[in-house]
Amino acid sequence: MSGTVDIIDDSAVCRLIIALALRRAGFQVRCHSDSLAAIQAIARAEEPPALLLIDLMLPKLDGYELTLLIRKQPRLSTIPIVLMSARHGLRERLRARLVGASAFLAKPFDVGHLVALVRRLTTASAPPGGSAAPPMPSPAPLVSPLLHAPFTVGSQTLPTPVPMPDGGHRPYS
């Protein structure tokens, strides 16, 4: 078994397709159609999920707001989060990165690519010799570390900020 993945999407069809693919790949899956109910269920769960798949366009809290809320909770802050959307322009991808998403998946997607992405992210977050999520550290600053990491969109790597002597950053290298 490869861990539990929570799917948060208001589309029953998307939840079904994703859940079937991940179950066939050996993952346990929990599905949620409502963002508020999902965050409550995830927070109450005995073990946090190994990964969250969150649709951007949700009623009540959208995927960005939900990701920010999750990142502020120490117990959940390091869970890999994949934001998914049919709207997948540069703006959506950058905003996903800024709120703390680990990856962005454009809809429609190839199921094999989805499973490979989930495997990669859950393996990267698993401690040596296990498939469970690592212990949750104290929350780190949300935005500044993200801005220092290279970010690739398609085949283009976006420039990273350059440190300035006064501690600030120039926007492009």
UniProtKB/TrEMBL annotation:
<feature type="domain" description="Response regulatory">
    <location>
        <begin position="4"/>
        <end position="122"/>
    </location>
</feature>
<dbReference type="InterPro" id="IPR001789">
    <property type="entry name" value="Sig_transdc_resp-reg_receiver"/>
</dbReference>
<dbReference type="InterPro" id="IPR011006">
    <property type="entry name" value="CheY-like_superfamily"/>
</dbReference>
<dbReference type="GO" id="GO:0000160">
    <property type="term" value="P:phosphorelay signal transduction system"/>
</dbReference>
<protein>
    <recommendedName>
        <fullName>Response regulatory domain-containing protein</fullName>
    </recommendedName>
</protein>
<dbReference type="InterPro" id="IPR050595">
    <property type="entry name" value="Bact_response_regulator"/>
</dbReference>
<dbReference type="Pfam" id="PF00072">
    <property type="entry name" value="Response_reg"/>
</dbReference>
<keyword id="KW-0597">Phosphoprotein</keyword>
<feature type="modified residue" description="4-aspartylphosphate">
    <location>
        <position position="55"/>
    </location>
</feature>
